[in-house]
Specification:
The protein has 18 helices and 27 strands.
Length: 624
């Protein structure tokens, strides 16, 4: 495996491949003088670079033979750019997979085109922020690999191309943390699912939800020793764990106030202010009253009376010389009403023009807004988080210091209120109604700015739910513990985007689509969409037979579009299935359903279990 990048995601991805899947990894990073920030991945490890600089020749004994074989090695190579020479020196021509995770989309695309030419059999994983461009690049590179396979250069290989975005991968977890207080989420088929920890009453079992994913740590009743978490337990283990906390899967929902959906056209009521609308209504009433009075005084037809009143109103009728006194008085009153109507009409025109002019401008937080999420930062991550929040129809107020930030156009399009200003300045968070907010999401690229905003928000409202994007693990741990100790009743979470995204990129390098990862205490559960065909552990087996406790479990059947473009057949059984709204997934499959080679399933797996499904031998270590 070859990993090329210039930030913390590359280091985390290389450590994930080497430590979890036991792969031989070559990490290509810029020279140290370029000042690349490297994340601390734990107190026991000084830095990721120091960890990967050591070529680790770990060994395991083969069953029965006693012989040893290398499991995972890693080496670091310095290169300013992923040129053809640098990729060749990194061994791309002999590699199984290449991950290009530079922060610049153009750099990743240029390197991917070069790598595909050097090795048509190579499995590519690209980090691209532009999703539409990513789809085209993925099709182009897959077509090049297919042509190479047709010429005999790619036979027997999985030369797939996967385009991922760390922002898209981390956004659902950040949104769920702000909404539900947990980042244990996975998004699939338009659904946002979360893993919820449930602590049952003594002597009772917790509700299973969509599926029971894990049993939490507990003290043993026999010897008082602590039992660690048990991932993907079977039914017998769940029934035997009465009174033990569980982690179950359920759909994320939001019960707070909602903002109206964004509209492309301007509503008529928003064209004019309430005072102006009342003024216009009053003038219309005066005109009608004058028309009725003229009808009663002169006895003419009502339509003729209304017509003459309008002529008098706009001063285009002849003077009522020789007419009755009542007619003359009404003409004078109509002229006076016309003079009063002119400034009202002018104000209406000016207000309408101003409304159309400011339709594309930034909105201010409305009065009385409450229960919303204050989003700090509209960069790459903030833009994706904002989109996810609005998809869930959650009210959002954004705070951004740069008027030209990447997400400003998205905020205008979604008509989301934005407060322009430096969050470190007094009054900016108050303008965002932080005292009535549901949560604060600080996702700027500066750790100190996020921390300062969180501390100031807590001084305004001590019980506010706070979610911080912090780069360094040790710094995040210290901040989390301090804030939790200072505000024990408030929810505080700190998240790293590279930490949330690395498992998904690693899974894609192994050749399967990883939907998400959910942490369970010190361990991790992966969710993957897998084609049953080609997997002897799944193909031709029932749901019960395919379930391997502690390794993997089939959760749902994908009834969406198949690889051939047709609609997948739903299970031909008489059982009733629980389909979530707006989803092409069939949940609560019966244990007797037989998986077929044409099926595509969503499964939960441990990292070692997924490696086994992929035919790899994972590194045997604690917490894997």
């Amino acid at each position: 495996m070859v990993v090329c990048g210039d930030d913390g995601l590359a280091h985390r991805l290389a450590a994930e491949l080497r430590g979890v899947y036991g792969e031989q990894v070559t990490l290509v990073v810029p020279p140290s003088e370029r000042g690349v920030r490297m994340p601390a991945v734990g107190r026991a490890r000084a830095t990721t670079a120091a960890l990967l600089d050591r070529v680790v020749n770990a060994t395991v004994n083969r069953a029965g033979g006693g012989a040893a074989e290398p499991v995972g090695t890693a080496q670091v190579m310095a290169a300013a750019e992923p040129t053809e020479e640098a990729l060749g020196a990194a061994g791309v021509a002999r590699a199984t997979a290449l991950a290009l995770v530079y922060d610049d989309d153009e750099t990743n695309i240029r390197a991917a085109l070069t790598a595909r030419r050097l090795n048509p059999r190579l499995r590519l994983v690209l980090r691209l922020y532009n999703r539409r461009l990513g789809q085209h690049i993925e099709e182009l590179l897959d077509q090049a690999a297919a042509l190479a396979a047709g010429n005999g250069d790619g036979s027997g290989s999985d030369a797939s191309t996967t385009v991922l975005s760390d922002a898209d991968t981390a956004a659902p977890a950040l949104v769920a943390t702000a909404v539900a207080g947990t980042s244990k989420v996975v998004q699939t088929d338009g659904l946002l699912l979360r893993a919820v920890e449930r602590t049952p009453m003594v002597g009772q079992l917790a509700e299973p939800g969509l599926a029971t994913l894990a049993l939490l740590s507990a003290d043993s009743a026999e010897n008082g020793a602590e039992q660690g978490p048990e991932l993907l337990p079977d039914g017998a283990a769940v029934r035997a764990a009465t009174g033990r906390g569980t982690v179950v899967l359920e759909q994320v929902s939001y019960a707070g106030p909602e903002l109206p959906p964004a509209r492309g056209a301007v509503a008529f009521a928003s064209l004019f202010s309430r005072r102006l609308r009342w003024s216009l209504a009053g003038m219309v009433g005066c005109v009608l009253a004058l028309a009725v009075a003229l009808w009663l005084v002169t006895g003419m037809h009502p339509l003729s009376a209304f017509y003459l009143t309008l002529l008098d109103l706009f001063a285009i009728d002849n003077p009522a010389i020789g007419a009755s006194v009542g007619r003359q008085i009404l003409q004078l009153l109509s002229g006076l009403t016309g003079l009063l109507l002119l400034p009202v009409l002018l104000a209406a025109v000016l207000e309408a023009l101003g409304t159309f002019r400011t339709t594309s401008a930034l909105r201010k937080p409305p009065r009385g807004l409450g229960g919303h999420v204050v989003l700090l930062g509209l960069g790459k991550i903030g833009t994706r988080v904002l989109t996810r929040l609005r998809e869930l129809r959650i009210p959002v107020v954004c705070v951004e210091s740069d008027p030209e930030a990447r997400g400003m156009a998205t905020a205008r399009r979604l008509r989301v209120p934005v407060v322009l200003g430096d969050v470190t300045q007094e009054g900016v968070l108050e303008a965002a109604k932080i005292h009535r907010a549901h949560a604060l999401l600080a996702v700027t690229s500066a750790d100190t700015t996020n921390l300062e905003a969180a501390l100031y928000a807590r001084s305004v409202r001590p019980d506010l739910r706070v979610v911080l994007r912090l780069y360094d693990d040790d710094f995040a741990t210290a901040v989390y513990r301090t804030l939790r100790a200072a505000h024990p009743r408030a929810s505080t979470r700190s998240r790293s985007v590279s930490h949330l995204a690395a498992p998904a990129f690693a899974g894609a390098m192994m050749g399967r689509q990883i939907l998400g990862a959910i942490p369970v205490e010190r361990r991790v559960l992966l969710f993957a969409a897998v084609d049953v065909g080609g997997h002897a552990q799944l193909d031709g087996r029932t749901i019960a037979e395919a379930f391997r406790p502690g390794a993997w479990r089939v959760l749902a059947l994908d009834t969406g579009t198949s690889a051939s473009g047709g609609r997948r057949e739903e299970p031909a059984t008489e059982e009733a299935y629980e389909d979530l709204p707006g989803s092409g997934l069939v949940w609560d499959l019966p244990d007797s359903y037989v998986l077929r080679g044409s099926d595509r399933v969503v499964l939960a797996a441990t990292r070692t279990g997924l490696a086994e499904l992929l035919g790899r031998r994972p590194r045997d270590r604690a917490g894997a």
